[in-house]
Design a protein that fits this description.
The complex is a heterodimer of chains A (about 260) and B (about 375). With about 260 residues, chain A is of the alpha/beta class. In chain A, about 30% of the residues lie in helices and about 25% in strands. Chain A has 6 helices and 13 strands. Chain B is globular, with a radius of gyration of 21 Å. Classes of the chains: A alpha/beta (about 260), B alpha+beta (about 375).
Chain lengths: ~260, ~375
Amino acid sequence: MEIVVCVKQVPDTTEVKIDPVKNTLIREGVPSIVNPFDKIAVEVALQLKEKHGGRVRVISMGPPQAADALKECLAMGADEAVLVSDRAFGGADTLATAYALSTSIEKMGPVDLIICGKQAIDGDTAQVGPGIAENLGIPQITYAAKIEINGNMIKVDREHEDGYEIMEAPLPVMVTVVKSIAEPRFPTVKGTMKANRTQIPVWSAADINADEKRIGMPGSPTQVRRIFTPTQRSQGQLIQEESAQKSVAVLIQKLSDAKII
Amino acid sequence: MFELSEDQKMMQKVAHDFAEKEVAPGAEERDEHETFSRPLYDAMVGLGLSSICFPEQYGGADGDVLSYILAIEEISKADSGLGISLSATVSLCAWPIFAFGTEEQKMKYVKPLAEGAQMGAFGLTEPGAGTDAGSQQTVAVRDGDNYIINGSKIFITNGGEAEVYIVFAMTDKSKGVRGISAFILEKGMPGFTFGKKEHKMGIRSSQTMELIFQDVKVPAANLLGKEGEGFKIAMTTLDGGRIGVAAQALGIAQAAFDAAVKYSKERVQFGKPISANQAISFMLADMATKIDAARLLVYRAASFKDAHKPYSKEAAMAKLFASDIAMEVTTDAVQILGGYGYIREYPTERYMRDAKICQIYEGTNQAQRMVIGGAVLR
């Protein structure tokens, strides 16, 4: 089984302080870590490899120091790592990042499974994984709490607030994983020594034949106006009558009672 | 010397992450109930922390002594009882077999110890032979292809838990210290039993037991080094062990300092954090300076060992200074936390209790001064 895990190096948010004047994160002096959800993704990949055989490769787009994050994944037991790094990638939003990563994954050859953490703890967008799947034209299953592989099929328990949705899809598939799926293992001493002696290949924009209009600043249409935590929505109401027609009738009645329609 | 290599930094991180996530959470409880946790120990060596400084052919990771010392320091920050358990296995048991053993002994004993399959211990101290290690009462008598060992050892770290023991015994009383020999014993050898478990002031998460030998038949193949080399082996082993104790003391001091800094920033009295008082910030400044000075001595001793330079004096200085400042720093940390420092809800009183043993074992600090004095007056 060919598994690729996408990882991001992020500031350790437990150590981040906020600039009281500018309201931005003070990143100086903050240690960098592997995004915790991505570490879980690596663990899931390693467990699948242990069960089904194959190879686990990790990929990251970021500055040269993001190689440290990849080394940590190698120390955990990943077989190979690729760093996608180029000044031209700088300022990428989730669209440009997903493009650069999916283009790189195409260069890696046939892949059965792409695993990402459900989101990065710095941006919290949860968009890059799905973006990669879209670019590659493969199915995506987000928020996986359990993964089973049977031949060419993947079965995933998808985590919801109030239960699980069980989904199946033919490989290749992009999956994002949640915290409850696995506890990431600790890197071992021997794995660490080996990782430290591994030269991690660095792919530039030219190496992956990237369209320069789709990477970095030019490829990033996102403009952040404001960042806020949305207020919690109250619980929805499930209308479940004997038939769909009756349910719709009840819904229309409720909506018109509320003067929405 | 002042900058750790990439390998060393990564090794430090392996130990740090494990210590923070797995060791720290139960440290208070293990201290309270005096429990040594074998599963936790096994998880630690499962990551390879006992393998760091041995070559690959003996199950090692081909790293250096300094990396191993960094691991002891990190583990000891979270639980110094576990730190000394690791040090006893690696520095006091696996290392002398690696340094003085035959190829056969290394394959049979160093490999499982380095790989983490077994745990080690070191039996030198007797009720009447502490600093005066030469006055051993345990005897070994040659009997054909075996030695018959009789006697006992006290205060043995990892006693009862370890599978492999380095035991010192008199093979020729007429020769004094030159009549002492070292043997490799295995748990379960007939006649080899364990006495009482000690109840200690600190490092209560490590197990300390008495070893009892009643006509224990040890194959002559388990003689470590030659007959009469035991004292030399013991002293050389302790030189290395002291770097481990020094790293343990350093870890304890650092943990106490970190706790004091955190508390002093949070604790508000007279409308401001107590860290805003010079009385407190000067204490913290002194504590930080002492810790850094100790750290340099400890890392230097490890670097000397890595460079195959003589390190007996350097190890004694590191152990002496790091354990003395650990006692001072932990006492000051308790002082900064005041009443909260004295109660068991905060870890500072544990650090203070744990620090004390570092001034005593693997050679009292008075014995360290004998070593240092001897070296400077030579």
